[in-house]
Amino acid sequence: MNAPTVFVSAGEPSGDAHAAAFVAALRTVVPGVRVEGLGGPRMAEAGATLMARIEDLTVMGFVEVVAKIPAHARLLKGMRARFARGDVALVVLVDYPGFHLHVAEAARRAGIPVLYYIAPQMWAWAEYRVRKLRERVTHLAVILPFEEAFFRGHGVPATFVGHPLLDRGDRPGRAAARRTLGLDPGRPVLSIFPGSRAQELHRIWPIFRETAERVRSVRPDVQVVVAGMVAGAYPEAGGIQVATGRAIECMAAADAALCKSGTTTLEAAIAGTPSVIAYRVHPVSYLFARMLTTIRWIGLVNLVADRLVVPEFIQGAARPAALAQALLPLLDAGNPERERQLEGLREVRRRLGEPGASARAALLARSLLPA
After folding, report:
1. Quick one: how far is CA 262 from the chain centroid?
2. Would you give per-residue pLDDT tens digits along the chain (371 residues)?
3. How far apart are CA 190 and CA 246, in angstroms?
């Protein structure tokens, strides 16, 4: 029998990393498999042949996404044409829900089974959208422990495979991370994670910068390092070290972290780093989100814990004075607030499961391929 062709689609850099690990695992459990798709450099390095690349597609928010509609439409047209050739045995979608729900529809119309790895967070939004997922997706490989029961309860086959962040084997110890970053090993470290998207940086970075300045005005011994993702995107960072491309080291080195909402909050839980969550979006995007969301918290770490472990400051509440006040106790060893949060982070880490998410997702994919 000819080796199957699997089409894998990742729409943003984080998805590219997870898709690359999946592709590597799939090539192990399905020898000779041909992998094509949409992705970035890491997917290509893992052995996928890319029909298109993800650069410049990454957007967030209701307002910001409008500008990318033409590019998404062109990509979708190309994917429909590819599926129509009839030789794709399975489509695997990795995160990026807005676009990928359309890809799932195109695949099912072409008679191709669909595995969705890192499922859309429909538990956070109006649940009526789950109907689209039920109609278009064959199986979900979910990475948060509460998702399996949610989706199965809505008629969508789902399997919890664990969180792919647990598969990272490149986390240094604190002392090694501080040496790599050139930090004083004997002084406390505050690491800042403002994100990489232009619209995030525009709204979040000035607040985070001023927060760091307020922390240092109270604690001059604190070293502040920014986990930079985009070179030159952090203006007026006087006295604050910018470590571009060193997010893992920044988290490992930190006594406390200031994080935008997102996967970074789970990174902090896995690293055992107490943190504070803050986020701002376009006011119109926030208005729509308030109307549509059904969740109590926005931080993934709090959603996994099912309680408020890490303080959240959203929109107008994300003020430098409030953020600094929340961060200062977390920088002191033995502080009761720090100890309380560390206990909660350990529970989150246990709930995330065991390493091996990519391998388990690859086994699910193999089960969906023709015999």
Report:
1. 6
2. 578 999 999 988 778 999 999 999 999 999 999 999 999 999 999 999 999 887 645 543 333 344 456 777 888 899 999 999 999 999 999 988 888 999 999 999 999 999 999 988 887 665 667 888 999 999 999 999 999 999 999 999 999 999 999 998 778 999 999 999 999 999 999 999 998 777 777 788 999 999 999 999 999 999 999 998 777 777 666 678 999 889 999 999 999 999 998 889 999 999 999 999 998 876 666 666 666 666 788 899 999 999 999 999 998 899 999 999 999 999 999 999 999 999 999 999 999 999 999 999 999 999 999 87
3. 14
Instruction: Assess contact for 121 and 262: CB atoms under 8 A.
Output: no
Domain boundaries, the chain: 5-162+356-368, 174-351
CA dihedral sign of residues 291, 104, 261, 297: positive
Homologous superfamily of the 5-162+356-368 domain (CATH): Glycogen Phosphorylase B; (3.40.50.2000)
Q: Closest by alpha carbon to 195, among 210, 208, 213? A: 208
Helix, strand, coil proportions of the chain in percent (round to 5)?
Answer: 50, 15, 35
Residue 8 host element (H or E): strand 5-10
Note the CATH number of domain 174-351. Answer: 3.40.50.2000
Tokens of 111: 């008679």
The answer for residues whose C-beta is within 8 angstroms of residue 107's C-beta and 6 or more apart is 7, 83, 88, 91, 113, 114, 136
